[in-house]
Each structure stands twice: as structure tokens, then as C-alpha cells.
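[recover] target loaded
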């Protein structure tokens, strides 16, 4: 009888967990969030496109939030984070209120130095820093303006301040650029499977600049993001014949 009770208990727990995962996927699909799913060396990788510069990656049981902000989602209903990546301190990328709603005791927050003043606890990564955590490889890479400025000598995103991130998740290499232009460092990014590149003037790139960045990086798949009202059809045309799979999602 005890064995039967334990077996039934395990079955109930398994059914509850399956129901949770099913509800998770249905709820966020109903909220209008799109996702793409990829097979990796170890588990399925889900890329959830929350909006603008905000993303969520789910890898097995691990949840990675990138630049979570409340204007893109109600984070009281979002899954708790194992890792949170903050590219820089601007309000459309850093929202301490949203972050607090997805924290658990073990959550690791990774940010640039300027963002750390608004957060209770974070691991600061500077351009060039690398980290291995929870089976994930994370590299912070430069993200800055060369051309566009808010005033003479004052770029919207100064060199050395913000981060992009290159992640190796189960053998898939993903580049999340943050707010940047087509900077020369991109020539050094190798074997990128998936890239997220921003595309909205004057803060980041025009379609032409983003296409130039994509040619330097040469990812298998490109998701333009942070693109506002930019005509995404332009970059599709510019990258025809390159072999880069340009995918447009709801990332205005």
C-alpha cells in the first residue's frame, strides 16, 4: 500500500509539473509573446520574444531574462529567473521593479557597472569579461555608438559602458547586441548561430548599418530587435543572398 501511495504521489507531482509547463506555454502565447524553439546538444532551447530589447530564454528548467522591463510585460506573472542579463542602464533596458518580481534566492544578476547603482546585488561584467555559470558560457562584449550622439562629443551609448552578451547554451552561440552600432569589434565574433541586432535611429543602427553588422558577424539566424517603427523589410532585402536567415518577430 505504501509503494502504491508513493507511486501515485509521484504520478500526481509529474502531472502537476506537466500541467505547469503546459500552462506556462499557453499563457505566454495568449499574451502575444512569440517563441522559437531550437534543439541543442543537451536540451531544447526556447527563445521568447517579449518586446523591444526584452527577451527570455528557457533552456530545460533554466530561465534567463534579458533586459526585463515592465512596459513590455507584467513580470508578476513571469517565471522566476536563474540568470538576469542587463545590457545597460537606460530605462528601456533596466527596470529594478521588474527585476524584483522575478528574483529568487539563487538568481544571478549580471550587469554593466553603471546599472549596478540601481540594483541591490549584481555581478558586474566589463567588456571582455567571461563567465561560466550553471553550464552556460557568458562573454560581455562592447556595445556603443560610433556615429550618433545626443550632443557633440556625447554619444547615446559611450564606448566601454554598455555590454552586449555572447552566450553558449548547449552548443548554440547567441549574440545579444544591446544598444550598439556596427562596431569593428564585431569582426572578431566567430561562429554565431543566432544574433539579435538593434535597429532604430538615432539611438542604434539604420537597416544599412545593421546589415553591415550582420555581414561581419555572419550568424545563421538574425533577429532584428529594438526596431521601433523601422521598416524591417529593408534589412531583409539587403541581406538576400547572404545565407543569413532574417526572422522578424514582435520586437518593436
Amino acid at each position: 500500500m505504501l509503494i502504491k501511495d508513493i507511486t501515485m504521489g509521484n504520478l500526481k507531482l509529474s502531472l502537476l509539473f506537466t500541467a505547469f509547463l503546459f500552462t506556462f506555454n499557453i499563457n505566454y502565447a495568449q499574451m502575444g509573446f512569440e517563441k522559437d524553439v531550437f534543439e541543442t546538444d543537451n536540451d531544447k532551447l526556447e527563445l521568447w520574444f517579449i518586446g523591444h530589447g526584452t527577451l527570455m530564454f528557457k533552456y530545460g528548467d533554466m530561465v534567463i531574462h534579458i533586459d526585463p522591463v515592465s512596459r513590455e510585460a507584467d513580470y508578476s506573472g513571469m517565471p522566476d529567473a536563474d540568470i538576469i542579463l542587463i545590457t545597460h542602464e537606460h530605462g528601456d533596458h533596466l527596470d529594478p521593479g521588474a527585476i524584483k518580481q522575478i528574483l529568487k534566492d539563487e538568481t544571478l544578476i549580471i550587469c554593466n557597472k553603471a546599472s549596478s547603482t540601481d540594483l541591490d546585488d549584481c555581478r558586474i561584467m566589463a567588456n571582455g569579461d567571461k563567465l561560466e555559470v550553471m553550464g552556460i558560457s557568458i562573454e560581455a562584449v562592447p556595445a556603443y555608438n560610433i556615429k550618433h550622439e545626443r550632443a557633440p562629443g556625447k554619444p547615446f551609448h559611450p564606448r566601454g559602458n554598455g555590454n552586449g552578451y555572447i552566450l553558449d547554451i548547449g552548443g548554440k552561440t547567441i549574440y545579444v547586441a544591446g544598444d550598439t552600432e556596427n562596431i569593428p569589434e564585431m569582426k572578431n565574433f566567430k561562429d554565431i548561430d543566432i544574433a539579435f541586432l538593434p535597429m532604430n535611429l538615432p539611438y542604434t543602427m539604420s537597416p544599412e548599418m545593421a546589415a553591415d553588422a550582420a555581414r561581419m558577424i555572419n550568424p545563421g539566424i538574425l533577429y532584428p530587435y529594438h526596431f521601433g517603427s523601422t521598416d524591417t523589410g529593408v534589412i531583409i532585402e539587403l541581406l538576400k543572398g547572404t545565407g543569413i536567415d532574417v526572422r522578424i518577430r514582435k520586437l518593436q
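[recover] notes: The longest strand covers residues 44-51.
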